[in-house]
Amino acid sequence: MTFLLRNLAKTNIRLLSSQCWAAKRQFCKPATPLSTCSAFPPKKLSLNAVAPSRFYSASASKEEIRAKAAVGPFTFKAAAVFLGVGAGLLLYFQSEKKKVEEIRKQKEAEKSQTQSYGKPKLGGAYSLTNAETNKPFGSEDLKGKFALIYFGFTHCPDICPEELDKMAEVVDMIKKEIGENVLVPVFITCDPRRDTVDIVKEYVKDFHQDLIGLTGDQDQIKRVAKLFRVYVSSPPDISEGDDYLVDHSIFFYLMDPEGKFLDCYAQNSEADGVSESFKNYYKAYVENGGNLDRTPIRNTPVIE
C-alpha cells in the first residue's frame, strides 16, 4: 500500500513539472530588442504607388535647367504674329480716329449752316480808296469772294501788327488748302488824319502781298466804321504832327461773297481756329450752291 502511494506521488510530480515547463515556454518568451521594435505593424507597399517626380535629374546642366524653365522660344513665327497683330491694331485705331474726325467736321459744318438768330446786321455798301492803286474800291469790288476785314491804324505800336500777322497766316492757310482768290484780306484805317494813301500803301506791304489797304476822308471812314459797328476814339483837338493813339475795336469781320456778315473773331482767336471756322463757312456756302468769283483782284496801279 505504501509502495503504491509513493509511485502515484512521483507520477503526479513529473506531470506537474512537465505542465509548468510548457507554461513557461508559452508565457516567458525572450524579449525583443527595442531597436528592432515598432509600435505599428508594417505596411504592405502597393505596386501602384508612384514616387514624386523630379523636375531635373541630378546630372542636368545649368543650360538645360534654364532652357526648360523658359516660358517658350521667341521664334520668327511668333515675331511675325506679334508684328501682324500690332499692325492690325494700329490700322484699326487710325480708322477709328479718322471716323471721329469726320463726325466732328460734319457737326461743325451743320452748326455753321444752322441759322443764327440775333446775328448782328453788319456791313453794307461803301466805297473808299485803294492805297495801292489810288482808285476807288469798296464792297462791290469784293463781290464773289470772301473777305476778312480789319480796322486799325498804321501808328499802332503792337496790337495792329500782331493782328495783321495773324490775318496773313490765315490767308496763307486758306490758299494752301482751298486755293487762290477765295479769301481777300482787307485793312481799313480808322485814323485817316495820318494814314494817307502813301503811308497805307507802304504799311500793308509788310504783312501780305494780297492785303488791300483802304483809306479815305474823315466822313467816309466814320460812315464805314458805323456800318461795321466799330468803336473808334481819338483824342480831341489834335493838331498836325501830334503823336497819339487811337482806341478802336479789335475784330476780324468775315463777309461772304454776297457781302453779308458771317462771323467776327476777337483778339484772343488763334489763326488755326479762324481758318477752321472759315473752311466750315466756305463748305456750307459751296454746298448750298453759292457762286464764287476766282478772278484775281487788280491791286496794282494801271500804267497808262
UniProtKB/TrEMBL annotation:
<feature type="binding site">
    <location>
        <position position="160"/>
    </location>
    <ligand>
        <name>Cu cation</name>
    </ligand>
</feature>
<dbReference type="GO" id="GO:0016531">
    <property type="term" value="F:copper chaperone activity"/>
</dbReference>
<keyword id="KW-0479">Metal-binding</keyword>
<feature type="binding site">
    <location>
        <position position="248"/>
    </location>
    <ligand>
        <name>Cu cation</name>
    </ligand>
</feature>
<dbReference type="GO" id="GO:0033617">
    <property type="term" value="P:mitochondrial respiratory chain complex IV assembly"/>
</dbReference>
<feature type="binding site">
    <location>
        <position position="156"/>
    </location>
    <ligand>
        <name>Cu cation</name>
    </ligand>
</feature>
<keyword id="KW-1015">Disulfide bond</keyword>
<feature type="disulfide bond" description="Redox-active">
    <location>
        <begin position="156"/>
        <end position="160"/>
    </location>
</feature>
<dbReference type="InterPro" id="IPR003782">
    <property type="entry name" value="SCO1/SenC"/>
</dbReference>
<keyword id="KW-0496">Mitochondrion</keyword>
<comment type="similarity">
    <text>Belongs to the SCO1/2 family.</text>
</comment>
<keyword id="KW-0999">Mitochondrion inner membrane</keyword>
<dbReference type="Pfam" id="PF02630">
    <property type="entry name" value="SCO1-SenC"/>
</dbReference>
<dbReference type="GO" id="GO:0005743">
    <property type="term" value="C:mitochondrial inner membrane"/>
</dbReference>
<protein>
    <recommendedName>
        <fullName>Thioredoxin domain-containing protein</fullName>
    </recommendedName>
</protein>
<dbReference type="GO" id="GO:0006878">
    <property type="term" value="P:intracellular copper ion homeostasis"/>
</dbReference>
<dbReference type="InterPro" id="IPR017276">
    <property type="entry name" value="Synth_of_cyt-c-oxidase_Sco1/2"/>
</dbReference>
<dbReference type="InterPro" id="IPR036249">
    <property type="entry name" value="Thioredoxin-like_sf"/>
</dbReference>
<dbReference type="GO" id="GO:0005507">
    <property type="term" value="F:copper ion binding"/>
</dbReference>
<keyword id="KW-0186">Copper</keyword>
<keyword id="KW-0472">Membrane</keyword>
